[in-house]
């Protein structure tokens, strides 16, 4: 086997190897985001197929996200310890077999179990994707590679509902899972090619089992609390009970991590502005993205005459903008630096929310398309630079863990943003035109204010 220095020295081999690294990371991220949304359109069919209820069927979505968020940090730590390529390989294998089993499910409980296993595979893929690029791609090609990764993240939400609808129209929901098989095989092939020419540095260390238990329980209860709240209401005592217990466990986790010799997360990182400011921006982006995907369908359904098919195309505007501008951001990141690119992206997204806050019921749907595209463009500019800034704030031997932290926080922020949107919707009791518009505006204000706060943090960081 060759080490990284040998590969860089051999330009032809280096080019091929880097292409394989990008393909491995890109397919892994694409698969994990594709399966977050591809099942949504199939929920009514699954409910009928398994003679289930709406609540239980919806758990096929929830349990995937919960398993992903609860295990991603462990896989990030393991990737730093035994190698990112190896963990990525495990992720593809787990995702492949769980996808096959999901499609073979005969009972709802079977589907839920296999979806949880699929979420674990997705966690291994998401935990390693960014770290593979930032540790194995040469500096001159890294920004372009991160831009490509941003494209793959955006393609998942674009193609998920479309592919799901296509396979449902063919008469079988099972293919929404089996479509993963060829993609997993391509990922395994690319991963194998990378493993043949790159020998990763291994950093042996013990795994903090107790800390991982604290974190896993905290993440599960936090996400379950918001899922429970979407069913019974965010004002429910039980909902806030789950959330408060998760916060207590999180505080316990942080205290524990500050005392152990080999923590999962070095909590001292959160004292450094070059890490904490981009991390807070990740959370803001996750919350805003949840709101931008949840509120527009209700608006279009309430105030336009668009068909569901036309509404779907309107909603593609945001992820389409993300895909297009991720490549552009990758090209300019090396020249201007990630912090300036992040500030531009945050500014563009904030402007989009300012426009949305003025939108009226009688306005043309094309205005919604334009504003969603503008938000997606800002997100595409922001996301690759955000990943680069967070990953480069730590040494290479910690980048697997930090990449997992970035994805985990974004996933949790998306769940929180969905709950915020639902809370504002529930707060308007009559749901008449004025009440709906007010609920939508509160959501836009909240997301826009959060992005403005992130932008001000960056401006303050520049002056410090």
Describe this structure in words.
The chain is mainly alpha-helical. The protein has 3 domains: 1-206, MFS general substrate transporter like domains (Growth Hormone, Chain: A, Up-down Bundle), CATH 1.20.1250; 208-263; 266-464, MFS general substrate transporter like domains (Growth Hormone, Chain: A). It has 18 helices and no strands. The chain has helices at 4-9, 11-37, 43-49, 54-82, 84-104, 108-136, 139-169, 175-178, 180-197, 209-232, 237-257, 273-303, 308-315, 317-336, 338-357, 365-391, 399-427, 433-463. It is globular. 52% of the residues are buried. Mean pLDDT is 81; it is low at 1-13.
What fraction strand?
Answer: under 5%
What are the low-pLDDT stretches, counting only 5+ consecutive residues below 50? 1-13
Indicate the structural class. mainly alpha
For the biggest sheet, the summary is: none
Note the quaternary state here: single chain
Distance between the termini: 46 Å
Tell me roughly what share of residues is in helical segments. Answer: over 70%
Per the CATH scheme, the topology name of the largest domain is Growth Hormone, Chain: A
What series of H and E elements makes up the topology? HHHHHHHHHHHHHHHHHH
Describe the global form.
Answer: globular
Q: What is the radius of gyration computed over CA atoms, rounded to a whole number of angstroms? A: 21 Å
- Determine the mean pLDDT: 81
Which CATH architecture of the largest domain would you pick? Up-down Bundle
**Highest-level CATH class of the largest domain:** Mainly Alpha
Count of helical regions: 18
The number of domains = 3
The CATH homologous superfamily name of the largest domain equals: MFS general substrate transporter like domains
